Amino acid sequence: MSTAIAQDATADVTIEPVLDARERRRQALAEIDNAKFGWFHIRACLVSGIGFFTDAYDLFIINLVVQMLGYVYFADNNNTVPPGIDLGLKVSAAVGTLVGQLFFGYLADRLGRKRMYGIELLMIVVFTITSAFAADTVRGMRATTMLIIWRFILGIGVGGDYPLSAVITAEFATTKRRGAMIAAVFAMQGFGILAAALVATATVAAFKSAIEDDVMNIDYVWRICIGVGAIPGLIAIYYRLTIPETPRYTMDIDNDLTKATKDIGNVLNKDSQQNAQDVAAASQVAEQHAQQRPKASLSDFCRHFSKWANLKVLLGTSLSWFALDVAFYGTGLNNAIILNAMGF
């Protein structure tokens, strides 16, 4: 019945004059690039931004938690976490982030942004919760060792969120607002770091009298501080899993011009009749489009970046980002050590 209805609806559609497949692709992408800024763009920023907020919170809360772990597990070491364990707790998630960026970045290019988007956030939520419940085992493994393991896997999820959120925002953004949308998403990192400090301060204040009675009550504080990081992720998971595939991926990687045209119409809330006309027109040149779009390869990558004009853009961007991260993560994860060395 549904097929018959669809056929009847298609029969009533007036198909526009057939355009060349390349021109149809340009026309479809121009609609995204020149679209009026609307609710969908705001939603894309919010959904991606919550991920960056959660990433920053989970990565940098450990800077405050380490001080608490010293009182719970290392009272015999002057309430201080040994340097080796301190390093492991702070670096484990960062190492996982590197792995996650490479792993999820590859899968997002091979399988699609939508298929991966949400999985990495689910990893963050699950392993944030497991980190909050880390404990000593009966034999051998201490809670801090378990926390290092959980945070490494958590970092893989964080690493997956970085490229996915950035590329999905960029591919849905209009040309005019693309820079602003990307900046808004990345700005959520600052709010995540601020939230980590506020949550830690508020939790310590709430447990102040309990800690004064028994310092071991600080064990509850560090677990709450870490566990709160799962809340924003839980809120965003549904929206991550229901966000459509980006039209650029559908069009240029999946080579499905018809579906990409339909998705663009849905994203931009186009009139249903107009959208049906566009889809019908795209379907006429879909096969031609698929034949004209060769699969990208490693040789294409090497050929493109063998030209200095292209390579210098990549090096300038990546090396600037590298220098930023050295300072950003170096100070962010070691604030307590730096302030102590300064005499505070």
Automatic annotation (TrEMBL):
It comes from the Eukaryota. Keywords: Membrane, Transmembrane, Transmembrane helix, Transport. SUPFAM superfamilies: MFS general substrate transporter. The keyword Cell membrane does not apply. The chain crosses the membrane at residues 87-108, 117-135, 147-168, 180-200, 220-241. It is found in: Membrane. GO terms for cellular component: membrane. It holds the Pfam family Sugar_tr. GO terms for molecular function: transmembrane transporter activity. InterPro entries: MFS_dom, MFS_sugar_transport-like, MFS_trans_sf, Sugar_transporter_CS. It is a multi-pass membrane protein. PROSITE patterns: MFS (PS50850), SUGAR_TRANSPORT_2 (PS00217). Residues 44-344 form the Major facilitator superfamily (MFS) profile domain. Its main location: membrane. This is Major facilitator superfamily domain-containing protein.
